[in-house]
Structures are given as C-alpha cells and as structure tokens.
Amino acid sequence: MALLEVKDLAIAVAINGRLVPVVRGISFEVEAGTTLGIVGESGCGKSLTSLAIMGLLEGSQVRITSGSIVFDGQDLLALPPERRRAVMGADMAMIFQEPMTSLNPVYRVGDQITESILQHRRISRAQARERAIELLRLVRIPDPEGRIDSFPHQLSGGMRQRVMIAMALACDPKLLIADEPTTALDVTVQARILDLMKELQAETGMAIMLISHDLGVIAETCDTVAVMYWGKIIETAPAAELFADMAHPYTRGLLASIPVTDREVDRLEAIPSRVPLIGETVTGCAFHPRCGRARPVCADIDPAAIAVSPSHSARCHFPGEDSA
Amino acid sequence: MSFLHSVRDIFRGRAMGTAGLIWLCVILFAALAAPWIAPFDPLDIDPVNRLTEPGWPHLFGTDHYGRDTFSRCIYGARMTMLIGLGSVAFALVTGGAVGMLSAYFTRLGNFLMRGIDVLMAFPALLLALVLMTLLERSVVNTIIVIGIVYATTTARILFGMTLKLKREVFIDAAVCSGAGHGSILFRHILPNLISPLLVQASFIFAFAQLQAAALDFLGLGLPPEVPSWGNMLSESRIYVTRAPWLLLYPGLLIILSVFSMNMVGDAMRDSMDPRFKDDIAGV
Q1: For residue A205, is pLDDT > 60?
Q2: pLDDT tens string B159-198
Q3: Distance CA A163, CA A147 (A)
Q4: Radius of gyration (Cα) for chain A, nearest Å?
Q5: Which of A98, A189, A317, B234 falls 20 to 30 Å from A210 in CA-CA distance?
Q6: What 3-state class would DSSP assign to A13?
Q7: Which domains does chain A have, with CATH numbers?
Q8: Is B252 on the interface with A (CB under 8 A)?
Q9: InterPro entries annotated for this entry (chain B) (predicted)?
Q10: pLDDT of B59 over the 90 cut
Q11: What is the pLDDT of residues B121-144, one digit of tens each?
Q12: In this structure, are strands A35-39 and A207-212 parallel, antiparallel, or unpaired?
C-alpha cells in the first residue's frame, strides 16, 4: 500500500455563500521513499491540495467537499484534531515557498527547531538542542553551533530555507511536502537546495511530494509527475516516460514555453488564450478552447483518463497526437 | 544587561523621552519611599495651622484641615503609581486576551468584538463614570473601571495585529509541526505582539493617571480620605482664591507625570516602529 493515497479529492472555495469548485476530484499516490512532482500553473489547485493534506484549510473559506486522504493507513480527514496534530510534524512535514516569512521573526532558529522536536518527543531541552545542531549540520549549514542562536533576519534566504528543511526533518517524517520550495530563491541556490533534498531523501528514506510550476525542477528531482490543469490531474506518468513522450497537449505546451539554450529559437511558444476563471463553466474538456488538436467532441465530452501505457495516463480524447 | 542595553537604545538621542523617564523614576522613588521621605503624616490634622502658605516646615503649605500638602503629594505618588500600573495590567491582560482570542477564533470574535464596539461607543470618561456609579469607591474598583475603559482600545489594536499575524506563513509552519491552539497563540503569536503591547502600556499609563484624577475630582474615584492628587484637587477647589497652592502643586504633578509618560511612550514607539524613526522622517 502506498504511503499517501489521495482519492477523488475535491476542494471548493466559499464565495458569497456559494461553493465554487477549485480542485475537481483528483487521485494520486505517493510510494514510500519516492518523489511525486505536481506541476501546473498558478491557480490550478496544486497548493490547495498540499494544504488540504497538511490540514491547513481549517477555518478558512476553503472546504474539502469530497474524497479521502489516507496517510500510512489512517484517513486524515476522519481523524480527531489531536490525533491529526500528532501526525503533523512527526510523520508528515511541510516546507513553504517563502523562506523569508516562514520562520517566526522573534525566535532564534534553534528554539524553533527544538520547539517542534519537543512537541512530539519526550526528551529534555538539552537533548533537543543537540538534535537541532545535528539537524543544522545535516542540512549543511556551516558552523551549526554558532548559527543555532541566530535570529531569522540574520540568515540569507537559502540559509532560512535550509533551516525550514531542518525543522521539517526534526522528527524523521515519512513524507515531506514541499510547496514551491525553491521559487523564491536564486537559481544557483535553487539547485543546491534541490540537491540537498535529494541527498536527504537518500539518507532518510522519506517520500517527497514536490509542488512546482517549474518543469525543470520537476524533471530534475521527481520519480513520478502529475500535471494539473484547472483543478484536475490531466496527465500522470513516471518522469522519464513523461518527458520522453508527453501525451497531453497542455503538458507539451508547458514544455514548449520554456526557453532552451541548446538551439536557436526566435520566439517562445505560448499557450494561447487563458485558463478558465474559477467558477466559470466549461463544457467538455477544460483545455479545448486553447487546444491545437481540439475537435468537436472535445467541446462536448470531458475526457476520462486514458492509459497511454500501463504507468502513463492522460485526460485527452486524442493523447499523443501532434497538434494541428 | 541586555535589558539595560535596550533601555539605552530606546532613550539615546531622545532628550524629551529621557527627561520623562527621569521624572517618572523620581515619582516611583517617592511612591516607594513615601513613609521615609514625607516630613509629616499625610492624614495628621492640625487645625491651628490650616491653610498656611508654602514655607517652612510646610514646603507646599497646608490644607483646610491643616494637613501637610507636601507629604500628601508624596503619598499621592503612591496612588498614581498603583492606579497606573494596576489599570495597565488589567487593560493589557483582559483587552489583550479578548483581542487575540477574537482574532484567532473568528466566530467568538464576531461576538466579543461587537461588545467591544458597544463599549467604545461611549466617551472614555463617561464610560468610567457610569461604571463607577455602579461600584463602591475603592482603589481596586478604580483600577478595574479604568482598566475596562482602556481594555477596549487594547483589544482593538491586538485584534488587528493578531488577524494579520495568524495569516503569516510561520504560523502555518507551526500548525504543520503539530502545534495546538494554545501553543500557537502564546508561543508563536504573543511574542510578536510584545513591542506594540509595551507602547500601548505606556500610553494607557498616561491616560489612566488623567482618568483617575478626573474621577477623583468628580468625587467618584478613590475614597475621599485617600491622599491622591485628584482628591487633593477636588477637596481644595473651593479654596482656590484663598489658597491657590493647594491646587497648584497636585495639578502640576499630574501634568508633569502625564506629559512624562507620553514622552516615554513616544520614545518607545519611535524606537520600535521603523516608520517613525526620527532620522528617516527628518524630524
């Protein structure tokens, strides 16, 4: 059984008392020790999915309307809050997009790390501090004994993201959810943070769910990839297979819109038009108004996931076809 | 040491604030050492020497019962400090709790903050008068009433700041690490509110002194036998033409203390809020 199983998860936002669907029934699995990448443009529902898994939607305008999230054999949506808190931070941890604001400015970084350790482990403060130094060393922060007493504003963005990762790893989680962990960082720092995450995965055997809009980041780090568009997973495949043979026109469009350096390109390909608005109704395939291979059937019937190969499926009536 | 350092940082280059702080230290010393530095018992009646002019041995003269005004002023500092600190503590604890809880638990907040809105609809002095008429005149009741009046503004300010703080990513990160409501409120949100609370405290302290003096003057604050600056003003107002020093000295003390506290509050706010930094504003 997979470590994390999300089934038919649907999330809606309450706008003026009306529930507007944002995530429209997505299912995916994360196997222990592997990396799943979720890719899609802004507003496709990828972050909401991660927040739903971490239980951060409580008390907001956003509701989970159906589906289940089973982690390590436990249905998270059915757990009482105290049991859920025991899972969060211990077996499952998250790092965020903004390393600048994800650390509490009034605490020394060491205190923040020991805090999350003490929340879950019955050990003394001194032992927790030892562990915090060990974690800072693990995330390759130079001089961890000195850095542990720094305040967040004394650290650079990359350093803070390393501290966040150290905090997330404090209790040896089985699953690390990383929501755009490198988006706010310089490209050079990005690569080092991604490498660090891969190395830590190899050392600890944790699974990673990486959320990004950056296909390059996904290609570099993930075992499996799920592409989201307008609240649905439109294509999913092992990374190598996906990048070798993209079946969905949207995935191809995403790749074509990335600048390449190995050949001369005059203009970047853009996907025409725009994503339907939240709450807009689209009949048939949500992508058909922007799709080069759209035919009459696309405007009428929303395609089901079609298997391109045993491990590769796409929601398209004409998977793999070249665009007209 | 670090406390002394931060005090030095706050007051360095801020002459008015420093002067205010020194004056408040004098008042605090007078309050603490009143029995040893007051030349007379503040309650001792001496009908022979009633309404004597300032001089020796009665530095500030005597009142209509012949009580020594200087000694009463020194004991009055005690009341000022007691009422000030007491109402600050009451206002910050109750107002802070209401504001933070309201912002954190929004459903409770809709209910509590409407109550605060109702209280804020009354002018501060009027609200204090209404509450005081319902209660007996005593030190504790005065502290509670003034505390309630300023708890409303504290609740408003902390409500807004907590609303903003609870949406910070580091709060999400704390939730993710398994922190419960109590831990998030007190360990993650509250420490971020310390500096606005301190600034708020300094202004409440100043207003509480004025408010207490006004209540005393209207005969609704401390019991009449208690030597407080407000009571002294109240009792001697009919002698204003014959013995104006009876109003002069307590009046001056009230003005100086409130002014000093405001200057200290300004200095604290300026040093903590970068938007008010003197060197940037060019003031």
Answers
A1: yes
A2: 999 999 988 888 888 888 888 888 889 989 998 898 889 8
A3: 10
A4: 21
A5: A317
A6: strand
A7: 33-55+80-259+268-283 (3.40.50.300)
A8: no
A9: BP-dependent_transpt_permease, MetI-like, MetI-like_sf, OppC_N
A10: no
A11: 999 889 999 999 898 888 999 999
A12: parallel
For residues B152 and B119, the answer to whether their CB atoms sit within 8 Å is yes
pLDDT at B281: 39
> Best residue in A47, A51, A102 to probe B by mutation, most B CBs within 10 Å?
A102
pLDDT in tens, B213-233: 999 988 888 888 888 898 888
Nearest to A224 by CA among A235, A213, A232: A235
Domain ranges in chain B are 76-281
- State the sign of the Cα–Cα–Cα–Cα dihedral A122, A128, A132, A135: negative
- The span from the CA of B152 to the CA of B102, in Å, is 12
Counting one residue from A and one from B, how many pairs have CB atoms under 8 Å apart? 69
Considering only CB atoms, which chain B residues are within 8 Å of A87?
A: 178
Three-class SS state of B246? helix
Cβ distance B177 to A96 less than 8 Å, yes or no, reads: no
Q: Round to whole Å and give the CA distance between B281 and B283.
A: 5
Q: How close is the nearest chain B Cα to the Cα of A143, in Å?
A: 24
Instruction: Please name the member of A97, A101, A120 whose beta carbon is closest to the beta carbon of B178.
Output: A120
Residue B183 to residue A119, Cβ atoms within 8 A: yes
**Inter-chain contact B106–A56, Cβ cutoff 8 Å?**
no
Closest approach of B93 to chain A, Cα-based (Å): 21
Average pLDDT, chain A: 88
Task: Decide if B90 contacts B96 (C-beta within 8 A).
Answer: no
CATH 1.20.140.10 describes domain B76-281: no
How far is residue A186's CA from residue A195's CA, in Å, rounded to a whole number? 14
Closest CA–CA distance from residue B76 to any residue of chain A (Å): 39
Q: Which residues of B touch A59 (CB under 8 A)?
A: 106
Cβ count near A42 (within 10 Å): 8
| The three-state (H, E, C) secondary structure of B13-74, written as one string | CCHHHHHHHHHHHHHHHHHHCHHHHCCCCCCCCCHHHCCCCCCCCCCCCECCCCCEHHHHHH
Angle A80-A82-A87 (CA atoms, 0-180°, nearest 5)?
Answer: 95
Is the Cβ–Cβ distance between B255 and B213 less than 8 Å? no
Distance from CA of A119 to the nearest CA of B (A): 7
CB atoms within 10 A of CB B143: 22
Q: How many alpha carbons fall within 13 Å on the CB side of residue A152?
A: 20
Q: Which residues of B touch A50 (CB under 8 A)?
A: none
Residue B282 pLDDT grade (very low, low, confident, very high; cuts 50, 70, 90): very low
The DSSP bridge pattern shows strands A175-179 and A207-212 to be parallel
